Fold these 2 entries.
Entry 1:
Amino acid sequence: MRILDPNQSYTFSKIFELRIRPDDLANEFGYGLTRKRLQLPQYQLELEHLEYLKNHIEVVLPYIDLANETSRREVLISQVVLQLVAYTKAQLRIEYSIKVNEQLQGYLDYLFRSQTELLVIEAKREDLDYGFTQLVAEMIALDQWDRTPEQSILLGAVTTGTIWQFGRLSRATKEIEQGLDLYRVPDDLEPLMRILVQALVA
């Protein structure tokens, strides 16, 4: 039985609002989904200013209300995203619009493009579970998008700002892996940043 009405148009944000389970949405488009601990490769060389960034976030956090998505983006996510650009020199697109078909379309919160790699990040206020469903839709769209580089693995992340969760899509097998590990900012900032950097310099 179809979850999405083939006669209706959907956006990524609309799919989030429907509160569909990530595996059910993946199956809808012919992909499989498993949940597991992901051994994601980490960048091994020195990352300058990382300790400064962590300390800066720790200093300002007690004074900022993170109750809404805008404050989380401005205070937490943007700090990580901008530092990632500085490290990798990747092109960053914010609120980037793509359309594959009527079921796979909408705005990507953050899309990074290096010479050969793409990385997508979805920002969510608090609901990581259905936020991951939206990330699944976005990664499937990127897999089917004719402007995606010829990379074998697509990596994505969904974040509330304070918590990050990764997803990985194998384009050959059409299998999506939902990472069980959660990375917290600022405590896990170093491994988080090393994963993000490696994804764009691989």
Note: The first strand starts at residue 32 and ends at 36.
Entry 2:
Amino acid sequence: MKARLPAVAPRPSPRERATKTSPVAKRVLDGDMRALARLISDVEEGRPEAREVLRTLYPHTGNAPIVGISGPLGVGKSSLINQLLQHLRGKGKTVGVIAVDPSSPFSGGAVLGDRIRIERDPDDTGVFFRSMASRGHAGGVAQSTRDALRLLEAFGMDVLLVETVGSGQVDVEIHDIATTRVVVVVPHLGDEVQTLKAGLFEIADVFVVNKSELPGSERAVKDLQELAYLSVPRDGWTPRVVPTSAAQRTGISELWQAVEDHESAMRNGPGAEAGRKARAEQELRELLRERIERLAEEELGKEASWKTLLQEVVAKETDPYSAADRAFQELKRRI
């Protein structure tokens, strides 16, 4: 008689594992917006317990499009997001918005206060908005921004929008986090040319010529279309150029269609896996760099010789390059 094998219990799903290991994760998965807001605050403050919840929720992420919206100050990024919010809510989509502001050199908090520029119904639970500080990152995207977006994904938001620091020349870190990058310019002051100088042309999947009711908009659109046509396609995608007017509420549906077309092309194209690997590698590098920097600060802070080394540099008894070499060798010895 053939022996019966013992029954194998089915493996728990990622949701079951999450709800068993973390009550906070369960609340986020169940759509508790207060729990979500508190957890994002914990992420910003770097609380260890937030990192544990992020680990638990990781299997529930990676499905929502992340649309980065970059461009110089004054091009109307926030007004454009207002119109996108209305358009997306009209399509029944829930939306999470992260507005990344420069950090205050005193408090470390956001200083531009994008929250006062985003118009939304406070009773609309289909929209979650958060203004976050860049934490000194030149490109405007700190790890806390990535983590907040990950929480919004686990919460179940259909679309994620990220407005980055509007400094133009340094808005390129969004390339490492967004699945679609939208660069906004306006048809005056040569912004379309400045975009090329800023290096934004290399990251744009969609160009928006906002304030298209202004003179020169047709020329700006044409110039960008020619440049896009002459550029080398990335993964088979040639950047789209879309004229919009947030004031007149035109071009918004065309903009979202361009975003959806890019998302579809990247999701189903030959470069999809490579794109995911590139984003994962960049995040791993940054997390490792963050931990190495923290370790170095902790270890060097314990060393009485560190203060001596600083004094030698100030007194010009040694140069900072030699001092850094000595500190590095001491750090390697200790770890």
Note: The two ends are 61 Å apart (CA to CA).
